[in-house]
Amino acid sequence: MTEKLLEVKNLKQHFNVGKPKEVRAVDGITFDIYKGETLGLVGESGCGKSTTGRTIIRLYDATDGEVLYKGVNVHGKKSSSELKEFNQKMQMIFQDPYASLNPRMKVSDIIAEGMDIHGLAKSQKDRAEKVYSLLETVGLNREHANRYPHEFSGGQRQRIGIARALAVNPEFIIADEPISALDVSIQAQVVNLLKKLQKEKQLTYLFIAHDLSMIKYISDRIGVMYFGKLVELAPAEDLYRNPMHPYTQSLLSAIPLPDPDYERSRVRKTYDASQHKYEQGEEVKMREVAPGHFVSCSEKEFAEYKAKYIV
Amino acid sequence: MKKLLEVKDLHISFHTFAGEVQAIRGVDFDLNEGETLAIVGESGSGKSVTTKSIMRLLPPGNSEIKAGNILFNGKDLTKASEKEMQKVRGQDISMIFQDPMTSLNPTMTIGKQIMEPLLKHQKLSKQEAKERAIKLLDLVGIPKPEIRLKQYPHQFSGGMRQRVVIAIALACAPKVLIADEPTTALDVTIQGQILDLMKDLQKQIETSIIFITHDLGVVANVADRVAVMYGGKIVEIGTVDEIFYNPQHPYTWGLISSMPSLDSTEEELYVIPGTPPDLLNPPKGDAFAQRNPYAMMIDLEEEPPMFKVSDTHFAATWLLHPNSPKVEPPTAVKERMAKFQAKQANSLKGGE
């Protein structure tokens, strides 16, 4: 857990720059991802969590800031061979298993496309073997290779998406809400699969979700985003035990749990950005309240949070 | 408590090229006045088909009610004419759909869409309907209703759109509100607001709600009673406490165990093995037997009847038969059962 795999430094992603409709989807966020860990990213829709993931993998060009993968900047000018190398190491699993698979391609071709591009299969036979073994890795059969996406259920499609991401032997996978579109019982299957693969292949995940109970289960550390900014970043256990930022508290208080007694007594907290009453000139930035637990706050709040922190 | 809606031995089939899909295979339940009944289950278990049949929204071409009755205030809706059904929809029973994006008409203003049922069912004048619409928007918590009335759905956010859909559904103060995954497409914070709103409105206009969802957290929050559906049947039904703290059916055990709790640290989540049954050729015996680690020989031969656990709690599993062996439920369920017993003991003491 010491080696930094990915460093995101003051990353900004603005759309429609200079126009009246300018959107600051991601507005200066900084975090690191260590090798072999799972970093969860949560927040409401529109808070910029998906944009963050997409900018990291270079689906968008960053407006400002940098993303370093093993010390090398992801953005900026790159030769096509450099780009290819980078693309192989970083892969993405998308939210919608219906929209992310080409309906006119066979499963074997969907999974092998990356292998073909990166020249990972030595022969046709090798290619087929690799596809079969990937299918088996994600819990599908080799007979499925010659089928088309529409012949599969949502959970099975998501498995195909995972197999495709694994095909090029990546080190880092960005999973953008991979389970949101699935049934509860299927969610557990996919989450177990992702965890198992992480162990076997030493993968590092950036896991984007809005389901807070699932994300706590899969993540080592969790970042909470609000309006394009990171408001809290902490080890998963710690975040749930000691939520410091009022937005995190409101988010946690909103999760309904399958426990009627708890539900009857649950009080939903609301959050309004103006409740901080920051004065002009007050510097609001990420500060470390406890080891590894960062909260976006002013100097004054920092002292309060530190006092409130329960070890 | 008065029964408002009774569904009796409902069988619904779809005719497809592959053959007859028996989507609903004998569903029985009642809805009492003023209560919230949650229906849970996997996709394909028949939750939506059951409720759509109440409103008769199933495609007329290929769907067929093979048997059974749906009694609303004593009147059988399965035998009602289309014209009679039009009077029921929106007036007596109305529905909220999952996706507020597709259930609103993008080419009509919000105001027009809310006024539609008012003009149609309550024969209000345009001016009266407009005033009602403003009141309704205000009721569901949309600020500046006078201005919002003239706007189109795309000018609203997802949560606001769902509020509009709720306003339309509640326009005629229906006796039954069917909510089909109304919060699945929304964020947790917005979900919380919508659930609170629905509970609040339920008290104000005294409707009964049928709430379909697969999120057990939401069920625990809203429901008075819960029906668990599997393979086109209700396999367990009871009060919310009975289902969450004293579940009897192995499928309910599986559902409860497969959700991570916020304080669970187990390495692997429990997964219900296998896949839902193929309703083209429903299996003989208990439909859940193939995936049931507790299955017995009889499960493969004969369908279990509903066994009575308490006056309000029934479950269809042979495990409840007096001759069946005692089995150990999963740990997560056992913890819940222990809590339930402690609670019951407490309430007994309190009653003395």
Short description:
With 311 residues, chain A is of the alpha/beta class.
Verbal overview:
Chain A: Pfam families: ABC_tran, oligo_HPY. Chain A: This is ATP-binding cassette domain-containing protein. The complex is a heterodimer of chains A (311) and B (352). Chain A has 311 residues and is an alpha/beta fold. Helix content of chain A is 36%, strand content 24%. Chain A contains eleven helices and twelve strands. Chain A has an eight-stranded mixed sheet, sandwiched between helices. In chain A, helix 6 links the parallel strand 7 (172-176) and strand 8 (204-209). Chain A is globular. Chain A starts with a strand and ends with a helix. The model of chain A has no long low-confidence stretch (mean pLDDT 89). Among the domains of chain B are: 100-173, no CATH class; 246-351, no CATH class. Chain B has 13 helices and twelve strands. In chain B, the strands form two sheets. In chain B, strands 6-7-8-3-9-10-12-11 form an eight-stranded mixed sheet, sandwiched between helices. Chains A and B meet through helix 6, helix 7 and helix 10 of A and helix 8, helix 9, helix 10 and helix 11 of B.
Total count of helical runs of at least 4 residues of chain B:
13
Q: Biggest protein-protein interface?
A: A-B, 35 and 39 residues
Estimated radius of gyration of chain B: 22 Å
The computed structural class of chain A is alpha/beta
Q: What is the C-level CATH assignment of the largest domain in chain A? A: Alpha Beta
Specify the biggest β-sheet of chain A. Answer: 8 strands, mixed
Q: How many beta-strand segments of chain A?
A: 12
- Contiguous helical run count of chain A: 11
Order of helices and strands of chain A: EEEHEEHEHHHEHEHEEHHHEEH
CATH topology (fold) name of the largest domain in chain A: Rossmann fold
The residue fraction in helices of chain A comes out at 25-40%
Question: Oligomerization state of this entry?
Answer: heterodimer
Secondary-structure class of chain B = alpha/beta
Silhouette of chain A: globular
Subcellular location (chain B): Cell membrane
Pfam families (chain B): ABC_tran, oligo_HPY
Membrane topology (chain B): Peripheral membrane protein
Family (chain B): Belongs to the ABC transporter superfamily.
